[in-house]
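Entry for the shared binder. Reason: the reviewer on the internal report wants the predicted structure included alongside the sequence.
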Amino acid sequence: MTTSILLAACAAAPIQEMSDARQAVQAARESGVQANDPALREAEEHLKSAEQRLKSRDYDAARTEAVQARDAAIQARKETVKPAE
């Protein structure tokens, strides 16, 4: 019983969030977002920070940075890719 309590208290690595962030940044790049686009640069900075925090096992901060990276990359892509009229 003590082991299960300890396991529940440990934060899990943000594997899905990191994957989502990486894919969103890659999709933004592939959609034609310019490398100097402010939203893309923000996404890349958050992703880099998330990777550093993941390495130091600061999983909560890594998760937050990864989500911010994903959101910024999605925004960059939305601003570049306009729907066909």
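Summary line for the report: Helices lie at 2-9, 15-30, 38-55, 59-80.
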